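Quick illustration, no need to memorize.
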Amino acid sequence: QVQLVESGGGLVQAGGSLRLSCAASGRTFYSYTMGWFRQAPGKGREFVAAISGSGGNTDYVDSVKGRFTISRENARNAVYLQMNSLKPEDTAVYYCAATQGWPLARARRYDYWGQGTQVTVSS
C-alpha cells in the first residue's frame, strides 16, 4: 500500500514559478516510476512528466519541456515538479502517481494516486 500526498499548489501570475511536492509512504519508493498528471476544468487527465526509480530517466509532455523539471529524493520518499515560466494554460489540478516500471511511462497504468493540488496561473 502506497499513499501519496501532494502539496505546493497555489495561485501565481503568468511567468512565475511553483514547486510541487509529493510525499510517499512505503519501504520501496525507490522502485517506482513516479509521474505527474494534470486535469484542467472540462478536460481529461493529461500526462505531464515522469521519472524512473533511480532518477536516471525522465520524460515530459512537449508543452512543458524546458519549463518544468521533475526530480526525486528517494531518501525522503519524495518527488517534485519544479514549474517555471508558468502559463495560464498550465492551470489544473496536479496529481502525482506511482507505477512499477519505466517503459512507456506516459502511457502506463499507474497504481497509486494522490489527492491532487490546485495550480492556478493568472494572466
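The chain has a mean pLDDT of 96.
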